[in-house]
Structure to design on (188 residues):
């Protein structure tokens, strides 16, 4: 029987008892104790950060949380990595900074290739990727939308399009200080 050790209910003393070698058993017991301690430390840290976010910018944090797939941790990442949305004059600047689109190199109206892949904030790229996957899992309408996009573009490109749309939605949500609208998001 395979169970994930990420859940505290699946961790017990009998895991270490499965091993006959005393050194291995001791190492497993130490690892389980460390995992329990990390869980407590992380819970305390997350609670502190959520409380700080509710003091620093409670409106924006609340609006970010209205997006399906963005929970407290992804909301915190977005809130503190973006900091001030006003530093991006247009949505394209924000998408580029978030590594959600690549810049095009052109001269005299002709394409000369594309820009580097690793320019921008890697943490935001990761956060939008996670949020897109969680949104697909949580919202059936988005799941069917992504299935249609996969037929047209392929799986990787469809996910990239969803991430960019999510980035665009975050930008406008933050600028206008209004809640996420799923119908408008899917129409867009």
């Amino acid at each position: 029987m395979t169970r994930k050790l990420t859940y505290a209910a699946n961790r017990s003393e009998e895991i270490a008892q499965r091993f006959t070698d005393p050194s291995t058993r001791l190492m497993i017991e130490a690892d389980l104790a460390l995992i329990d301690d990390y869980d407590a430390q992380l819970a305390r840290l997350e609670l502190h950060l959520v409380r700080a976010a509710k003091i620093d910018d409670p409106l924006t944090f609340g609006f970010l949380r209205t997006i399906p797939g963005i929970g407290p941790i992804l909301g915190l990442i977005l809130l503190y990595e973006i900091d001030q949305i006003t530093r991006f004059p247009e949505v394209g600047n924000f998408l580029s900074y978030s590594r959600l689109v690549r810049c095009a190199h052109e001269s005299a109206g002709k394409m000369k290739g594309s820009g580097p892949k690793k320019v921008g904030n890697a943490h935001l790229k990761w956060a939008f990727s996670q949020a897109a996957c969680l949104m697909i899992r949580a919202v059936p309408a988005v799941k069917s939308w992504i299935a249609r996009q996969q037929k047209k573009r392929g799986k990787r490109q469809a996910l990239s399009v969803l991430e960019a749309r999510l980035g665009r939605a975050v930008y406008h949500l933050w600028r206008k200080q209004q809640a996420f609208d799923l119908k408008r998001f899917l129409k867009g």
